[in-house]
Amino acid sequence: MDKILVGLKRVVDYNVRVQVKGDGSGVETDGVKMSINPFDEIALEEALRIKERGEAAEVVVVSIGSSESQQQLRTGLAMGADRAVLVETGEELDSLSVARVFKALVEREGADLVILGKQAIDNDNSQTGQMLAAIWGRPQATFASEIKLDGDKATVTREVDVGLETIEIDLPAVVTVDLRLNEPRYVKLPDIMKAKKKPLDQIALADLNIEQGPPIQTTAFEPPAGRQRGVMVDDVPALVAALKDKGLV
Amino acid sequence: MTKVLVVAEHDGASLNPSTAKCVSCAAQLDGADIDIVVLGASVAAVATEASTISGVGRVLTVERAENTPALAAILAPQVVAIASEYSHVFGPSTAFGKDLMPHVAALLGVNQISDIMTVTGPHQYQRPIYAGNAIVTVSASPEHKVVATVRTASYQAAAGGGAAPIENVAADAEIPQHTRFVSVQTGQSDRPDLQSAGKVVAGGRALASEENFELIYKLADALGAGVGSTRAAVDAGYVPPETQVGQTGQIIAPDLYIAIGVSGAIQHVTGIKDAGTIVAINKDEEAPIFEIADIGLVGDLFKIVPELTDALS
Predict the structure, then answer these.
(1) Which residues form the domain of B282?
(2) Contacts of B187 in chain A (CB under 8 A)
(3) A165 within 8 A of B242, measured Cβ to Cβ
(4) Would an 8 Å CB–CB cutoff place A121 in contact with chain B?
(5) Which residues in A192-216 are b (16+ Cβ under 10 Å) and which e?
(6) Which of A134, A155, A160 is nearest residue B95 as measured by Cβ atoms?
(7) Tens digit of pLDDT for each residue in A58-104?
(8) Residues of B with CB below 8 A from A218's CB?
(9) Is 0.90 exceeded by the ipTM?
(10) Superfamily of domain A3-245
Protein backbone atom coordinates (compact mmCIF):
# COMPACT_ATOMS: atom_id res chain seq x y z
CA MET A 1 0.00 0.00 0.00
CA ASP A 2 1.13 3.51 -0.67
CA LYS A 3 0.11 5.56 2.25
CA ILE A 4 -1.09 5.42 5.85
CA LEU A 5 -2.56 8.50 7.52
CA VAL A 6 -2.32 8.74 11.31
CA GLY A 7 -4.05 11.33 13.49
CA LEU A 8 -2.10 12.85 16.39
CA LYS A 9 -4.14 14.93 18.83
CA ARG A 10 -2.47 17.30 21.27
CA VAL A 11 -3.99 16.63 24.70
CA VAL A 12 -3.22 17.21 28.36
CA ASP A 13 -0.65 14.59 29.36
CA TYR A 14 -1.98 11.28 30.72
CA ASN A 15 -0.27 11.83 34.08
CA VAL A 16 -1.79 15.26 34.77
CA ARG A 17 -4.73 15.26 37.15
CA VAL A 18 -7.06 17.63 35.35
CA GLN A 19 -9.05 20.08 37.45
CA VAL A 20 -12.05 22.24 36.71
CA LYS A 21 -11.30 25.98 36.92
CA GLY A 22 -12.72 27.75 39.94
CA ASP A 23 -15.19 29.75 37.83
CA GLY A 24 -16.48 26.68 35.99
CA SER A 25 -15.45 28.07 32.60
CA GLY A 26 -13.32 25.10 31.63
CA VAL A 27 -10.52 22.90 32.86
CA GLU A 28 -7.14 24.21 33.93
CA THR A 29 -4.70 23.85 31.03
CA ASP A 30 -2.34 26.77 31.70
CA GLY A 31 1.19 25.55 32.22
CA VAL A 32 0.03 21.95 32.01
CA LYS A 33 2.17 19.39 30.18
CA MET A 34 0.75 18.54 26.75
CA SER A 35 1.43 15.31 24.85
CA ILE A 36 0.25 13.18 21.97
CA ASN A 37 -2.99 11.40 22.88
CA PRO A 38 -1.67 7.99 24.07
CA PHE A 39 -3.97 6.03 21.74
CA ASP A 40 -2.68 8.08 18.79
CA GLU A 41 0.87 7.15 19.72
CA ILE A 42 -0.16 3.48 19.50
CA ALA A 43 -1.78 4.23 16.11
CA LEU A 44 1.47 5.75 14.85
CA GLU A 45 3.58 2.88 16.21
CA GLU A 46 1.38 0.42 14.30
CA ALA A 47 1.68 2.42 11.08
CA LEU A 48 5.47 2.51 11.47
CA ARG A 49 5.62 -1.25 12.02
CA ILE A 50 3.50 -1.82 8.91
CA LYS A 51 5.91 0.35 6.93
CA GLU A 52 8.95 -1.38 8.43
CA ARG A 53 7.53 -4.75 7.35
CA GLY A 54 7.50 -3.36 3.82
CA GLU A 55 3.70 -3.25 3.63
CA ALA A 56 3.38 0.53 3.26
CA ALA A 57 5.48 3.13 1.52
CA GLU A 58 4.74 6.26 3.53
CA VAL A 59 3.35 7.27 6.92
CA VAL A 60 1.85 10.75 7.20
CA VAL A 61 0.91 12.20 10.58
CA VAL A 62 -1.91 14.74 10.81
CA SER A 63 -2.95 17.11 13.56
CA ILE A 64 -5.71 19.69 13.70
CA GLY A 65 -5.27 22.67 15.98
CA SER A 66 -3.11 25.67 16.74
CA SER A 67 0.53 25.97 15.72
CA GLU A 68 1.46 24.45 19.09
CA SER A 69 0.37 21.08 17.71
CA GLN A 70 3.59 21.20 15.67
CA GLN A 71 5.32 19.87 18.82
CA GLN A 72 3.28 16.68 18.71
CA LEU A 73 3.80 16.36 14.94
CA ARG A 74 7.58 16.76 15.40
CA THR A 75 7.47 13.99 18.01
CA GLY A 76 5.60 11.86 15.48
CA LEU A 77 8.25 12.61 12.85
CA ALA A 78 10.95 11.71 15.37
CA MET A 79 9.21 8.39 16.00
CA GLY A 80 9.57 7.71 12.29
CA ALA A 81 6.71 9.27 10.33
CA ASP A 82 7.81 10.53 6.90
CA ARG A 83 5.77 13.69 6.70
CA ALA A 84 3.41 15.81 8.78
CA VAL A 85 0.36 17.91 7.99
CA LEU A 86 -1.01 20.50 10.38
CA VAL A 87 -4.51 21.75 9.70
CA GLU A 88 -4.37 25.06 11.49
CA THR A 89 -7.30 26.45 13.40
CA GLY A 90 -7.77 28.28 16.66
CA GLU A 91 -11.19 26.73 17.13
CA GLU A 92 -11.91 23.48 18.87
CA LEU A 93 -13.58 21.36 16.21
CA ASP A 94 -16.44 18.95 16.85
CA SER A 95 -15.90 15.26 15.96
CA LEU A 96 -17.91 15.35 12.74
CA SER A 97 -15.89 18.32 11.47
CA VAL A 98 -12.67 16.51 12.38
CA ALA A 99 -13.93 13.50 10.42
CA ARG A 100 -14.64 15.83 7.47
CA VAL A 101 -11.10 17.22 7.66
CA PHE A 102 -9.70 13.70 7.56
CA LYS A 103 -11.91 12.83 4.61
CA ALA A 104 -10.60 15.87 2.74
CA LEU A 105 -7.02 14.86 3.52
CA VAL A 106 -7.65 11.22 2.58
CA GLU A 107 -8.85 12.42 -0.83
CA ARG A 108 -5.99 14.86 -1.23
CA GLU A 109 -3.37 12.30 -0.18
CA GLY A 110 -4.95 9.14 -1.59
CA ALA A 111 -4.53 7.22 1.66
CA ASP A 112 -5.18 3.47 1.78
CA LEU A 113 -5.46 3.22 5.55
CA VAL A 114 -6.28 5.72 8.28
CA ILE A 115 -5.23 4.70 11.79
CA LEU A 116 -6.60 6.71 14.72
CA GLY A 117 -6.75 6.31 18.48
CA LYS A 118 -10.00 4.78 19.72
CA GLN A 119 -10.62 7.89 21.82
CA ALA A 120 -8.85 11.04 22.93
CA ILE A 121 -8.25 11.17 26.66
CA ASP A 122 -9.45 14.78 26.90
CA ASN A 123 -13.09 14.61 25.81
CA ASP A 124 -13.31 10.77 25.85
CA ASN A 125 -15.76 10.91 22.93
CA SER A 126 -14.65 7.91 20.85
CA GLN A 127 -16.34 9.14 17.66
CA THR A 128 -13.97 10.40 14.97
CA GLY A 129 -12.93 7.09 13.38
CA GLN A 130 -16.49 5.80 13.15
CA MET A 131 -17.66 9.12 11.69
CA LEU A 132 -14.88 9.16 9.12
CA ALA A 133 -15.78 5.61 8.04
CA ALA A 134 -19.43 6.66 7.70
CA ILE A 135 -18.91 9.76 5.58
CA TRP A 136 -16.12 8.14 3.54
CA GLY A 137 -18.29 5.05 2.93
CA ARG A 138 -15.42 2.76 3.88
CA PRO A 139 -15.06 0.02 6.53
CA GLN A 140 -14.35 0.72 10.17
CA ALA A 141 -12.53 -1.57 12.58
CA THR A 142 -12.68 0.03 16.01
CA PHE A 143 -10.80 -0.86 19.22
CA ALA A 144 -8.16 -2.90 17.37
CA SER A 145 -5.78 -5.16 19.26
CA GLU A 146 -4.28 -6.79 16.15
CA ILE A 147 -4.05 -5.72 12.51
CA LYS A 148 -2.96 -8.11 9.74
CA LEU A 149 -2.73 -6.86 6.18
CA ASP A 150 -3.17 -9.07 3.14
CA GLY A 151 -3.16 -7.23 -0.18
CA ASP A 152 -6.31 -5.16 -0.45
CA LYS A 153 -7.79 -6.62 2.74
CA ALA A 154 -7.08 -6.42 6.44
CA THR A 155 -8.00 -8.78 9.26
CA VAL A 156 -8.53 -6.89 12.49
CA THR A 157 -9.07 -8.25 15.98
CA ARG A 158 -11.18 -5.94 18.14
CA GLU A 159 -11.55 -5.66 21.90
CA VAL A 160 -15.26 -5.95 22.63
CA ASP A 161 -17.13 -6.44 25.91
CA VAL A 162 -17.36 -10.23 25.58
CA GLY A 163 -13.79 -10.79 24.44
CA LEU A 164 -12.08 -10.50 21.07
CA GLU A 165 -13.91 -10.19 17.77
CA THR A 166 -12.16 -10.64 14.44
CA ILE A 167 -13.45 -9.01 11.26
CA GLU A 168 -12.18 -8.79 7.72
CA ILE A 169 -12.35 -5.46 5.91
CA ASP A 170 -11.56 -4.25 2.42
CA LEU A 171 -9.08 -1.41 2.03
CA PRO A 172 -9.10 1.53 2.10
CA ALA A 173 -10.45 1.59 5.63
CA VAL A 174 -10.36 3.27 9.03
CA VAL A 175 -8.92 1.45 12.04
CA THR A 176 -9.08 2.82 15.58
CA VAL A 177 -6.66 1.30 18.05
CA ASP A 178 -6.90 0.02 21.59
CA LEU A 179 -4.22 -0.20 24.27
CA ARG A 180 -3.03 -3.74 23.64
CA LEU A 181 -2.09 -3.31 19.98
CA ASN A 182 1.56 -2.48 20.66
CA GLU A 183 3.94 -0.58 22.87
CA PRO A 184 5.08 2.64 21.22
CA ARG A 185 8.83 3.18 20.79
CA TYR A 186 10.80 5.80 22.62
CA VAL A 187 12.17 8.67 20.61
CA LYS A 188 15.97 8.90 20.47
CA LEU A 189 17.85 12.19 20.38
CA PRO A 190 19.33 11.75 16.87
CA ASP A 191 15.82 11.09 15.60
CA ILE A 192 14.64 14.37 17.09
CA MET A 193 17.40 16.14 15.16
CA LYS A 194 16.49 14.30 11.94
CA ALA A 195 12.81 15.10 12.44
CA LYS A 196 13.56 18.82 12.20
CA LYS A 197 14.42 18.33 8.54
CA LYS A 198 11.31 16.33 7.66
CA PRO A 199 8.49 18.17 5.87
CA LEU A 200 5.68 19.65 7.94
CA ASP A 201 2.97 21.22 5.75
CA GLN A 202 0.55 23.71 7.19
CA ILE A 203 -2.91 24.08 5.75
CA ALA A 204 -5.40 26.66 6.99
CA LEU A 205 -8.65 25.01 7.98
CA ALA A 206 -10.52 27.52 5.79
CA ASP A 207 -8.66 26.28 2.71
CA LEU A 208 -10.23 22.83 3.07
CA ASN A 209 -13.78 24.26 2.79
CA ILE A 210 -15.10 22.00 5.52
CA GLU A 211 -18.71 22.25 6.51
CA GLN A 212 -18.86 22.47 10.30
CA GLY A 213 -21.34 21.32 12.90
CA PRO A 214 -24.10 21.15 13.84
CA PRO A 215 -22.25 21.96 17.04
CA ILE A 216 -22.71 20.56 20.51
CA GLN A 217 -22.20 23.49 22.89
CA THR A 218 -20.53 22.96 26.22
CA THR A 219 -22.23 25.32 28.64
CA ALA A 220 -20.85 24.37 32.06
CA PHE A 221 -17.96 22.54 33.72
CA GLU A 222 -18.20 21.05 37.20
CA PRO A 223 -15.97 18.88 39.31
CA PRO A 224 -17.40 15.37 39.74
CA ALA A 225 -19.45 14.50 42.80
CA GLY A 226 -17.03 12.78 45.13
CA ARG A 227 -17.54 9.60 47.06
CA GLN A 228 -17.16 9.79 50.82
CA ARG A 229 -14.32 7.97 52.47
CA GLY A 230 -15.92 5.10 54.39
CA VAL A 231 -14.83 3.01 57.35
CA MET A 232 -11.71 0.94 57.88
CA VAL A 233 -12.03 -2.54 59.33
CA ASP A 234 -9.28 -4.48 61.05
CA ASP A 235 -9.74 -8.03 59.85
CA VAL A 236 -11.73 -10.41 57.68
CA PRO A 237 -14.45 -11.19 60.27
CA ALA A 238 -15.12 -7.46 60.63
CA LEU A 239 -15.25 -7.09 56.84
CA VAL A 240 -17.71 -9.97 56.52
CA ALA A 241 -19.83 -8.48 59.31
CA ALA A 242 -19.89 -5.10 57.56
CA LEU A 243 -20.95 -6.73 54.28
CA LYS A 244 -23.68 -8.68 56.08
CA ASP A 245 -24.88 -5.45 57.68
CA LYS A 246 -25.38 -3.98 54.24
CA GLY A 247 -27.11 -7.13 53.05
CA LEU A 248 -24.45 -7.70 50.40
CA VAL A 249 -23.50 -11.25 51.36
CA MET B 1 -42.69 16.03 19.99
CA THR B 2 -40.00 13.97 21.65
CA LYS B 3 -39.71 10.53 20.08
CA VAL B 4 -36.79 8.38 21.14
CA LEU B 5 -35.52 5.36 19.26
CA VAL B 6 -33.39 3.07 21.43
CA VAL B 7 -31.14 0.67 19.53
CA ALA B 8 -31.20 -2.67 21.35
CA GLU B 9 -28.03 -4.54 22.15
CA HIS B 10 -28.38 -8.32 22.16
CA ASP B 11 -26.52 -11.52 21.33
CA GLY B 12 -29.28 -13.12 19.27
CA ALA B 13 -30.66 -15.03 22.26
CA SER B 14 -31.22 -12.41 24.93
CA LEU B 15 -31.35 -8.69 25.41
CA ASN B 16 -28.35 -6.96 26.99
CA PRO B 17 -29.30 -5.09 30.20
CA SER B 18 -27.82 -1.94 28.64
CA THR B 19 -31.02 -1.59 26.58
CA ALA B 20 -33.30 -1.18 29.62
CA LYS B 21 -30.80 1.37 30.99
CA CYS B 22 -31.05 3.39 27.78
CA VAL B 23 -34.83 3.33 28.22
CA SER B 24 -34.41 4.77 31.74
CA CYS B 25 -32.31 7.58 30.31
CA ALA B 26 -34.83 8.25 27.53
CA ALA B 27 -37.61 8.33 30.14
CA GLN B 28 -35.91 11.38 31.70
CA LEU B 29 -36.94 13.35 28.62
CA ASP B 30 -40.28 15.01 29.35
CA GLY B 31 -43.20 13.37 27.58
CA ALA B 32 -41.01 11.13 25.46
CA ASP B 33 -42.45 8.34 23.32
CA ILE B 34 -39.89 5.55 23.49
CA ASP B 35 -39.54 2.79 20.91
CA ILE B 36 -36.89 0.07 20.76
CA VAL B 37 -35.47 -1.28 17.52
CA VAL B 38 -34.02 -4.80 17.50
CA LEU B 39 -31.86 -5.64 14.49
CA GLY B 40 -30.77 -9.22 13.87
CA ALA B 41 -31.22 -12.33 11.77
CA SER B 42 -34.02 -13.76 13.87
CA VAL B 43 -35.04 -11.69 16.85
CA ALA B 44 -38.43 -12.94 18.09
CA ALA B 45 -37.14 -13.93 21.55
CA VAL B 46 -35.16 -10.71 22.02
CA ALA B 47 -38.08 -8.58 20.83
CA THR B 48 -40.40 -10.32 23.30
CA GLU B 49 -37.97 -9.53 26.09
CA ALA B 50 -37.72 -5.90 24.96
CA SER B 51 -41.51 -5.59 24.86
CA THR B 52 -41.69 -6.19 28.62
CA ILE B 53 -39.59 -3.12 29.48
CA SER B 54 -41.96 -0.63 31.04
CA GLY B 55 -42.33 2.73 29.32
CA VAL B 56 -41.73 1.35 25.84
CA GLY B 57 -44.34 2.24 23.19
CA ARG B 58 -43.38 -0.16 20.42
CA VAL B 59 -40.68 -2.69 19.66
CA LEU B 60 -39.60 -2.59 16.04
CA THR B 61 -37.82 -5.58 14.57
CA VAL B 62 -35.60 -5.57 11.51
CA GLU B 63 -34.77 -9.13 10.50
CA ARG B 64 -32.09 -9.72 7.95
CA ALA B 65 -29.49 -12.50 7.74
CA GLU B 66 -26.62 -9.98 7.51
CA ASN B 67 -27.58 -8.40 10.83
CA THR B 68 -26.09 -11.25 12.86
CA PRO B 69 -23.43 -10.96 14.14
CA ALA B 70 -23.86 -7.21 14.52
CA LEU B 71 -21.45 -5.07 12.50
CA ALA B 72 -21.68 -1.28 12.77
CA ALA B 73 -21.24 -0.60 9.06
CA ILE B 74 -24.14 -2.93 8.26
CA LEU B 75 -26.54 -1.89 11.04
CA ALA B 76 -25.97 1.87 10.79
CA PRO B 77 -27.71 2.56 7.45
CA GLN B 78 -30.73 0.54 8.63
CA VAL B 79 -30.94 2.50 11.88
CA VAL B 80 -30.76 5.69 9.83
CA ALA B 81 -33.62 4.47 7.61
CA ILE B 82 -35.83 3.98 10.67
CA ALA B 83 -34.66 7.10 12.48
CA SER B 84 -36.45 9.57 10.20
CA GLU B 85 -39.55 9.88 12.40
CA TYR B 86 -37.59 10.20 15.66
CA SER B 87 -36.16 13.25 17.41
CA HIS B 88 -33.62 11.24 19.42
CA VAL B 89 -31.65 8.04 18.74
CA PHE B 90 -30.00 6.45 21.78
CA GLY B 91 -27.68 3.50 22.17
CA PRO B 92 -25.64 2.17 25.07
CA SER B 93 -22.11 3.34 25.76
CA THR B 94 -20.80 -0.23 25.50
CA ALA B 95 -18.41 -1.58 22.85
CA PHE B 96 -21.49 -2.25 20.68
CA GLY B 97 -22.96 1.24 21.02
CA LYS B 98 -19.63 3.07 20.85
CA ASP B 99 -18.89 1.32 17.56
CA LEU B 100 -22.33 1.87 16.04
CA MET B 101 -23.76 5.18 17.22
CA PRO B 102 -21.12 7.65 15.92
CA HIS B 103 -21.48 5.96 12.53
CA VAL B 104 -25.25 6.53 12.70
CA ALA B 105 -24.71 10.16 13.77
CA ALA B 106 -22.35 10.89 10.89
CA LEU B 107 -24.71 9.31 8.34
CA LEU B 108 -27.40 11.61 9.74
CA GLY B 109 -25.02 14.58 9.48
CA VAL B 110 -25.02 15.36 13.19
CA ASN B 111 -22.57 15.20 16.05
CA GLN B 112 -23.02 12.69 18.84
CA ILE B 113 -23.30 13.17 22.57
CA SER B 114 -21.27 10.40 24.21
CA ASP B 115 -21.93 8.94 27.66
CA ILE B 116 -25.04 10.74 28.92
CA MET B 117 -25.06 10.70 32.74
CA THR B 118 -28.07 12.97 33.29
CA VAL B 119 -30.75 14.54 31.14
CA THR B 120 -31.14 18.20 32.12
CA GLY B 121 -33.41 19.26 29.24
CA PRO B 122 -34.73 17.96 25.92
CA HIS B 123 -31.46 18.92 24.26
CA GLN B 124 -29.25 19.35 27.31
CA TYR B 125 -27.26 16.63 29.03
CA GLN B 126 -24.40 16.05 31.42
CA ARG B 127 -21.44 13.85 30.52
CA PRO B 128 -17.95 13.12 31.89
CA ILE B 129 -14.71 14.22 30.26
CA TYR B 130 -11.04 13.72 31.26
CA ALA B 131 -11.69 10.29 32.79
CA GLY B 132 -14.47 11.74 34.91
CA ASN B 133 -12.30 14.53 36.34
CA ALA B 134 -14.84 17.02 35.00
CA ILE B 135 -18.54 16.84 34.26
CA VAL B 136 -19.78 19.03 31.44
CA THR B 137 -23.24 20.21 30.49
CA VAL B 138 -23.70 20.04 26.73
CA SER B 139 -26.48 21.31 24.49
CA ALA B 140 -27.41 19.99 21.08
CA SER B 141 -29.24 22.06 18.50
CA PRO B 142 -33.05 21.59 18.72
CA GLU B 143 -33.27 21.74 14.92
CA HIS B 144 -31.35 18.49 14.57
CA LYS B 145 -31.78 14.93 15.69
CA VAL B 146 -29.98 14.04 18.90
CA VAL B 147 -27.80 10.96 18.57
CA ALA B 148 -26.31 9.84 21.85
CA THR B 149 -24.82 7.02 23.84
CA VAL B 150 -25.97 6.45 27.39
CA ARG B 151 -23.45 5.86 30.17
CA THR B 152 -25.10 2.68 31.39
CA ALA B 153 -23.47 2.87 34.84
CA SER B 154 -25.46 6.07 35.48
CA TYR B 155 -28.84 4.37 35.06
CA GLN B 156 -30.79 1.53 36.64
CA ALA B 157 -32.50 -0.77 34.17
CA ALA B 158 -36.12 0.26 33.55
CA ALA B 159 -38.57 -2.06 35.27
CA GLY B 160 -40.33 -4.96 33.55
CA GLY B 161 -44.06 -5.55 33.38
CA GLY B 162 -44.67 -3.77 30.09
CA ALA B 163 -46.41 -5.24 27.07
CA ALA B 164 -45.40 -3.17 24.06
CA PRO B 165 -46.59 -4.29 20.64
CA ILE B 166 -43.94 -5.79 18.35
CA GLU B 167 -43.88 -4.67 14.72
CA ASN B 168 -41.72 -6.00 11.98
CA VAL B 169 -40.42 -3.15 9.83
CA ALA B 170 -38.45 -2.97 6.62
CA ALA B 171 -35.41 -0.77 6.88
CA ASP B 172 -34.66 0.17 3.31
CA ALA B 173 -30.95 0.65 3.12
CA GLU B 174 -28.03 -0.32 0.99
CA ILE B 175 -25.95 -2.82 2.95
CA PRO B 176 -22.20 -2.48 2.43
CA GLN B 177 -20.26 -5.59 1.44
CA HIS B 178 -16.87 -4.31 2.58
CA THR B 179 -16.95 -5.61 6.17
CA ARG B 180 -17.18 -9.28 7.13
CA PHE B 181 -17.41 -11.03 10.49
CA VAL B 182 -14.78 -13.74 10.99
CA SER B 183 -14.96 -14.98 14.57
CA VAL B 184 -15.40 -14.08 18.19
CA GLN B 185 -13.40 -15.45 21.07
CA THR B 186 -15.01 -15.10 24.46
CA GLY B 187 -13.59 -15.86 27.86
CA GLN B 188 -14.65 -19.40 28.74
CA SER B 189 -16.39 -18.70 32.00
CA ASP B 190 -19.78 -19.11 33.58
CA ARG B 191 -19.28 -15.98 35.65
CA PRO B 192 -21.63 -13.06 35.13
CA ASP B 193 -20.41 -10.48 32.63
CA LEU B 194 -19.20 -7.17 34.00
CA GLN B 195 -22.07 -5.06 32.67
CA SER B 196 -24.79 -7.12 34.32
CA ALA B 197 -23.00 -8.50 37.40
CA GLY B 198 -24.45 -7.35 40.72
CA LYS B 199 -21.11 -8.07 42.36
CA VAL B 200 -17.63 -7.70 40.93
CA VAL B 201 -14.29 -8.77 42.37
CA ALA B 202 -11.36 -7.00 40.76
CA GLY B 203 -7.62 -7.54 41.00
CA GLY B 204 -4.80 -5.14 40.27
CA ARG B 205 -1.10 -5.26 39.58
CA ALA B 206 -0.38 -6.42 43.15
CA LEU B 207 -1.67 -9.89 42.24
CA ALA B 208 1.72 -10.16 40.49
CA SER B 209 0.93 -13.13 38.22
CA GLU B 210 -1.68 -14.87 36.14
CA GLU B 211 -1.59 -17.83 38.58
CA ASN B 212 -2.28 -15.60 41.57
CA PHE B 213 -5.44 -14.32 39.87
CA GLU B 214 -6.91 -17.72 40.88
CA LEU B 215 -7.43 -16.07 44.27
CA ILE B 216 -9.68 -13.49 42.60
CA TYR B 217 -11.58 -16.14 40.63
CA LYS B 218 -12.19 -18.23 43.76
CA LEU B 219 -13.53 -15.26 45.72
CA ALA B 220 -15.67 -14.24 42.74
CA ASP B 221 -17.12 -17.74 42.51
CA ALA B 222 -17.86 -17.81 46.23
CA LEU B 223 -19.85 -14.59 45.76
CA GLY B 224 -21.34 -15.38 42.34
CA ALA B 225 -19.50 -12.29 41.15
CA GLY B 226 -18.00 -11.14 37.87
CA VAL B 227 -14.25 -10.55 37.56
CA GLY B 228 -12.70 -7.18 36.86
CA SER B 229 -9.17 -5.86 36.62
CA THR B 230 -7.05 -2.78 36.14
CA ARG B 231 -5.18 -1.71 33.04
CA ALA B 232 -1.89 -2.57 34.77
CA ALA B 233 -3.04 -6.15 35.40
CA VAL B 234 -4.18 -6.55 31.79
CA ASP B 235 -1.01 -4.99 30.38
CA ALA B 236 1.04 -7.40 32.50
CA GLY B 237 -0.87 -10.30 30.95
CA TYR B 238 -2.47 -11.55 34.17
CA VAL B 239 -6.04 -11.31 32.84
CA PRO B 240 -7.77 -10.89 29.46
CA PRO B 241 -8.58 -7.35 28.21
CA GLU B 242 -12.36 -7.72 28.49
CA THR B 243 -11.96 -7.65 32.29
CA GLN B 244 -10.48 -4.14 32.31
CA VAL B 245 -12.51 -1.56 34.22
CA GLY B 246 -11.97 2.18 33.85
CA GLN B 247 -11.70 5.08 31.44
CA THR B 248 -10.50 2.93 28.57
CA GLY B 249 -12.18 -0.30 29.64
CA GLN B 250 -15.66 -0.93 30.94
CA ILE B 251 -17.62 1.52 33.08
CA ILE B 252 -19.71 -0.43 35.58
CA ALA B 253 -22.02 0.07 38.55
CA PRO B 254 -22.42 -3.18 40.50
CA ASP B 255 -24.02 -3.23 43.97
CA LEU B 256 -20.72 -4.49 45.39
CA TYR B 257 -17.22 -3.91 44.04
CA ILE B 258 -14.29 -5.51 45.83
CA ALA B 259 -10.97 -3.99 44.71
CA ILE B 260 -8.02 -6.19 45.64
CA GLY B 261 -4.47 -4.96 45.22
CA VAL B 262 -5.84 -2.03 43.23
CA SER B 263 -4.11 1.30 43.90
CA GLY B 264 -7.03 3.42 42.72
CA ALA B 265 -5.70 5.48 39.81
CA ILE B 266 -8.28 8.03 38.59
CA GLN B 267 -8.50 6.19 35.26
CA HIS B 268 -9.68 3.07 37.13
CA VAL B 269 -11.87 4.85 39.67
CA THR B 270 -13.90 6.56 36.94
CA GLY B 271 -15.11 3.10 35.93
CA ILE B 272 -16.50 2.21 39.38
CA LYS B 273 -17.60 5.42 41.03
CA ASP B 274 -21.27 4.56 40.60
CA ALA B 275 -20.90 1.21 42.37
CA GLY B 276 -23.18 0.71 45.39
CA THR B 277 -20.52 -0.34 47.89
CA ILE B 278 -16.78 -0.32 47.22
CA VAL B 279 -14.53 -2.54 49.33
CA ALA B 280 -10.77 -2.03 49.10
CA ILE B 281 -8.14 -4.52 50.23
CA ASN B 282 -4.60 -3.22 49.89
CA LYS B 283 -1.36 -3.47 51.82
CA ASP B 284 -0.61 0.23 51.34
CA GLU B 285 -2.76 2.26 53.70
CA GLU B 286 -1.97 5.39 51.66
CA ALA B 287 -3.40 3.90 48.46
CA PRO B 288 -5.88 6.34 46.84
CA ILE B 289 -8.48 3.58 46.54
CA PHE B 290 -9.17 4.01 50.28
CA GLU B 291 -10.32 7.60 49.65
CA ILE B 292 -13.34 6.34 47.75
CA ALA B 293 -13.89 2.95 49.42
CA ASP B 294 -16.88 2.43 51.72
CA ILE B 295 -15.07 -0.35 53.56
CA GLY B 296 -11.27 -0.60 53.66
CA LEU B 297 -9.00 -3.32 54.95
CA VAL B 298 -5.24 -2.82 55.05
CA GLY B 299 -3.19 -5.97 54.80
CA ASP B 300 -1.63 -8.71 52.72
CA LEU B 301 -4.07 -9.79 50.05
CA PHE B 302 -2.46 -13.22 49.84
CA LYS B 303 -3.61 -13.88 53.43
CA ILE B 304 -6.84 -11.89 53.42
CA VAL B 305 -8.40 -13.12 50.18
CA PRO B 306 -8.26 -16.88 50.96
CA GLU B 307 -9.62 -16.16 54.44
CA LEU B 308 -12.44 -14.06 52.98
CA THR B 309 -13.22 -16.73 50.39
CA ASP B 310 -13.46 -19.36 53.15
CA ALA B 311 -15.68 -17.11 55.24
CA LEU B 312 -18.07 -16.53 52.33
CA SER B 313 -18.12 -20.08 50.92
Answers:
(1) 199-312
(2) 162-163
(3) no
(4) yes
(5) eeebeebebeebebeebebeeeebb
(6) A160
(7) 999 999 999 999 999 999 999 999 999 999 999 999 999 999 999 99
(8) 136-138
(9) yes
(10) HUPs (3.40.50.620)
